[in-house]
Design goal:
Layout lengths: L2 E2 L6 H5 L27 H13 L8 H15 L4 E10 L5 E11 L6 E7 L26 H16 L5 E7 L3 E2 L2 E2 L1 H8 L9 E6 L12 H6 L1 H13 L14 E2 L2 H6 L4 E5 L22 H16 L2
Parallel strand pairs: 4-5, 4-8, 8-10
Antiparallel strand pairs: 1-9, 2-3, 3-5, 6-7
Helix pairs in contact: 2-4, 2-9, 4-9, 7-9
Length: 313
């Protein structure tokens, strides 16, 4: 759903800043990445994964598209990851309706003690509540950017991780129920409340709405408050890779998103998000969230940055 946050994040988030989970290096010198030795991230392949998801139709819990997407993700990831877990759970919607939801967790290099968590939500919104035509607001959005784009990046990253061994353990989390009307980030709330025993990743990165045709990822203020060392590591990596035009060191719009439950659980997590989708964010939560309004460019910028983070150790 992603709500705008008009003031600083709640005290509960600030309390998390002292807990373990911020294992990224302190601010300072550039990482000095040898870009020639980094695995390549194929943004065109990632974009095809975005298109495949939209072709399933809306991925609203309880719909055929939702089940098709789940089956497709699990099959794809099982061909690539060391292990794949479907974390099935039930929730209640805002009108008391029962919801059957599923997070998907894919693990790479499972024996590594130093791990990072990368996540994206895979469901789509059941109502186009920002649609200018009020008669169409009860229709589900296509979710090309808000849903498919983050998943496409992580699934293409899974292909990179299968082909290239990693110095770190990497966990990919695909959350369900992030965008179910007034019920927010149900999947990340469930995951945060059911962490594996002793699971403390060094940090987490949420990837959301990264498929805009003019992608820019300013620093999301909630992320900066809760995990400034992770923000610095990500933005320095992008700068070392020549991607600073996509990752400006300027504040963006504060957003309530899937990273918040993880922050509350003590995992230093940030949100890479371009919360300016179309002119004046005009396509967000509308029927215009279509493939035609997306591009591979942002997928590539985020994907290459994640590769740089993982393979710099």
């Amino acid at each position: 759903m992603k709500r705008l946050v008009v003031c600083a994040l709640m005290v509960a988030v600030l309390a998390c800043k002292g807990e373990r989970g911020g294992g990224a290096p302190a601010t300072g010198a550039a990482l000095g990445l040898d870009t020639a030795k980094l695995p390549q991230f194929d943004e065109k392949a990632a974009y095809r994964l975005l298109q495949e998801q939209v072709a399933f139709g809306p991925r609203v819990p309880g719909t055929p598209g939702h089940q098709k997407q789940l089956d497709w993700m699990v099959a794809y990831l099982r061909e690539r990851a060391d292990s794949v877990e479907v974390q099935s759970f039930e929730a209640t919607g805002p009108k008391g309706e029962p919801l059957k939801l599923a997070n998907v967790i894919a693990r790479f290099n499972p024996r590594a003690s130093d791990r990072i968590l990368l996540l994206a939500h895979w469901d789509t919104r059941p109502t186009a509540d920002n649609e200018p035509d009020s008669l169409k607001r009860k229709q589900p959005i296509p979710g090309a950017n808000d849903g498919a784009s983050g998943v496409a990046v992580l699934m293409q990253l899974a292909d990179v991780l299968k082909r290239h061994s990693q110095p770190l353990g990497v966990d990919l989390l695909f959350t369900d129920g992030e965008d179910y009307t007034d019920a927010m980030y149900l999947g990340s709330e469930y995951f945060a409340g059911h962490l594996p025993p002793g699971y403390r990743p060094l940090y987490g990165i949420l990837v959301d709405m990264v498929g805009d045709q003019s992608p820019v990822f300013p620093i999301e203020p909630t992320s900066q408050q809760a995990a400034p060392e992770v923000v610095d590591r990500v933005w320095r990596t992008a700068e070392d890779l020549g991607l600073s035009r996509y990752f400006p060191r300027s504040p963006g719009t504060p957003v309530d998103d899937d990273h918040v439950p993880l922050i509350r659980a003590g995992i230093h997590t940030i949100d890479i998000i371009d919360f300016d989708y179309g002119p004046g964010n005009a396509y967000w939560h509308t029927l215009e969230d279509t493939v035609e309004h997306t591009s591979p460019e942002g997928l590539g910028a985020v994907g290459r940055t994640l590769v740089g983070l993982i393979y710099s150790g």
